[in-house]
């Protein structure tokens, strides 16, 4: 949880709940490759043995007896510019890889694993040492747009999670002439500021799908100062917002009492939705005033509480 305001963390572009997939791996003899991009912290229960040994919430390969190294290829749920990579060896203590590196590639469309392996790859994280049961953070300076990453472990072992944080850069040309959710993280939107993220991350409100429970939305601490909480969404592109969906599903006793929306375009602000009452545990849909294109939308909630999802449907300008 976070007690600070300002710019929220960049999303994990590889996350399974964003559409990421582990499309191929050199080996997964002990633990399945799909675990690498699961949401949440890795779990572990000592003394839990299956037919392949201790059960791990991660990806684990066999012990190599020949030269080379193991690898796993991940299709990002949302293509983008990668800013940081986290390699987490949680719970792997005597079986973690001593080194790892990460490559990236940009292959649009729907390539097969064979086509991906034959594509040109760029090293974005050079070979670096790892320790057991630890998160390893690596900054990435590359400015290119990528669709896939390849985790290389040297020579073998287990990794619990791979996180690929960055700025979404999807191909929006498929929406030419059509409407779209301008606030969708999958379309390139991002929460760039919020007043409070005490219980859960604000970028949750623009994630794909429905929130399954309260923690999959955005929720603030209880306000005692008479002010109100807010967040700012940078839209997928400059556009006209015509319909807002404000969803308080799962927020039974901590939904906001009301919401207001303000469009921002440079130094100009325009009211899109005046302060409007909300109900708990309810999807709300509002047709908006649309005075012109905007690049950002400020969502004010009164006085505090949580939102499961925010959808802002419209057209790119």
Q: What is the radius of gyration computed over CA atoms, rounded to a whole number of angstroms?
A: 21 Å
Instruction: Using the 3D structure, state the CATH architecture of the largest domain.
Output: Sandwich
For this entry, what is the oligomeric state of its chains? single chain
Helical segment tally?
1
CATH superfamily of the largest domain: Galactose-binding domain-like
Strand content: 35-45%
User: Could you name the CATH class of the largest domain?
Assistant: Mainly Beta
> Could you give the distance between the termini?
36 Å
Secondary-structure element sequence? EEEEEEHEEEEEEEEEEEEEEE
Q: For the residues shown, what is the average pLDDT?
A: 93
Looking at the structure, the CATH topology of the largest domain is: Jelly Rolls
| Helix fraction by DSSP (H/I, runs of at least 4) | under 10%
Could you tell me the number of beta strands?
21
What does this structure look like?
By secondary structure, this protein is mainly β. The chain folds into 2 domains: 16-167, Sandwich (Jelly Rolls); 172-316, Galactose-binding domain-like (Jelly Rolls), CATH 2.60.120.260. Helices cover 2% and strands 44% of the residues. The protein has 1 helix and 21 strands. The protein has one helix at 113-118, and strands at residues 21-25, 49-50, 53-54, 59-60, 70-88, 99-105, 122-129, 135-139, 145-154, 158-159, 161-168, 180-181, 190-194, 218-219, 229-247, 258-265, 268-277, 283-287, 294-302, 306-307, 309-316. The strands form 5 sheets. Strands 12, 13, 15, 16, 17, 18, 19 and 21 form an 8-stranded antiparallel sheet that branches. Strands 1, 5, 6, 7, 8, 9 and 11 form a 7-stranded antiparallel sheet that branches. β2 and β3 (53-54) form a beta hairpin. It is globular, with a radius of gyration of 21 Å. Mean pLDDT is 93; it is low at 1-7.
